[in-house]
Amino acid sequence: MMRAPKRRRPRKGQRLVPAADTDLGALSDRVTYIVSPEHKDYLTAPGRPGRLRSDASACPRGLDFDEVETWLKKAVARGDVSADVIGDFPRYAWTRVEGRCYEARLSNSGLGQYKGYPINDYEAPGWLE
What we know:
Helices cover 16% and strands 22% of the residues. It contains two helices and six strands, in the order αβαβββββ. A four-stranded mixed beta sheet has the order 1-6-5-4, covered by helices on one side. Strands 2-3 form a two-stranded antiparallel sheet.
């Protein structure tokens, strides 16, 4: 009988337990949100058309992208991030805004850039409030 190999990285929804010397506030100052046309079905700034993937959830129209970056920074500062870390940055961050869940995924680990998109409640980690 063959055993499944051990996981090399934490599960997606596993929450980061920061080390005592980890400053999540300082880390949150370094993260940025980038507009991803993969989750847009409309024209994005600066005039790039959306290229919504068939398996991607569309972001609500009319979002203020500066506000979205604030949501991301607050999620990182609160520790609402995955235990899977690449370089200095968690692979995922999650937040709830007005009853809707959003997930941010690290897209550039060198610069701390994330793209974000809405997810269903059942896709969010069980610990997310």
